[in-house]
């Protein structure tokens, strides 16, 4: 295709669907709906962000006025979004783990319960951000896959007369040594062309 046909697509807009699965779940094909292991977290509001951070440490010597060497001793990949789906099966995944949701159907009324204690060790997940037209090369699908993440959220849902409960979510990518490619240990992007 000619470059002029690509120009509009090179600037992506729109939201993606966010999926979560047990750690170790493989990345699905780019043009298929994720399988049963993947759970869509639900409706989100506002921006969905990915932050790549890691300050450089610079070194200087007496012979130069500027830095002569730089290293990046730390780096982070942080994923942020606002979840507005308040079902316990959804928010339990950002608080701790869906296995902590219990359902009781016997007795006078059926109920679901979720304790608020998060515990010392966060649950590790695989995370997928998937868009139907999320390729900068045209109207093709795209997805970002993070093989190993933990919730770093401190949600503060507030409800009011004119406000719904919203859960500010932050997930941190952890290095996944099961990935053979060093460049993919914190995740990677796949887009159609």
Walkthrough of the structure:
The protein is mainly β and 193 residues long. It has one domain (16-191): Roll (Pnp Oxidase, Chain A). The chain is 6% helix and 36% strand. It contains 2 helices and 12 strands. Strands 1, 2, 3, 6, 9, 10, 11 and 12 form an 8-stranded antiparallel sheet that branches. The protein has a two-stranded antiparallel ribbon with strand order 4-5. The protein has a two-stranded antiparallel ribbon with strand order 7-8. A hairpin with a 6-residue loop joins strand 7 (101-104) and strand 8 (111-114). The longest helix has 8 residues, at 88-95. It is globular. The N and C termini lie close together (10 Å). The mean pLDDT is 91.
The main pleated sheet reads as:
8 strands, antiparallel
Report the sheet-strand fraction: 35-45%
CATH architecture: Roll
CATH class: Mainly Beta
Q: Structural class, from helix and strand content?
A: mainly beta
In one word, what is the shape?
A: globular
Rg, alpha carbons: 20 Å
Helix fraction bin = under 10%
């Amino acid at each position: 295709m000619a470059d002029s046909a690509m120009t509009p697509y090179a600037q992506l807009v729109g939201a993606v669907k966010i999926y979560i699965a047990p750690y170790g779940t493989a990345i699905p094909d780019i043009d298929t709906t994720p399988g049963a292991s993947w759970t869509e977290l639900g409706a989100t509001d506002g921006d969905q962000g990915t932050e790549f951070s890691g300050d450089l440490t610079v070194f200087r010597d007496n012979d130069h006025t500027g830095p002569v060497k730089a290293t990046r001793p730390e780096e982070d990949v942080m994923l942020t979004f606002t979840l507005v789906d308040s079902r316990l099966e959804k928010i339990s995944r950002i608080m701790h783990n869906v296995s902590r949701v219990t359902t009781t159907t016997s007795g006078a009324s059926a109920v679901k319960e979720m304790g608020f204690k998060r515990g010392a060790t966060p649950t590790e997940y695989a995370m997928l951000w998937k868009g139907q037209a999320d390729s900068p090369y045209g109207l093709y699908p795209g997805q970002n896959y993070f093989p190993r993440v933990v919730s770093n959220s401190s949600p503060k849902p507030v409800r009011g007369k004119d406000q719904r409960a919203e859960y500010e979510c932050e997930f941190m990518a952890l290095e996944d040594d099961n990935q053979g490619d060093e460049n993919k240990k914190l995740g990677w992007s796949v887009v159609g062309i």
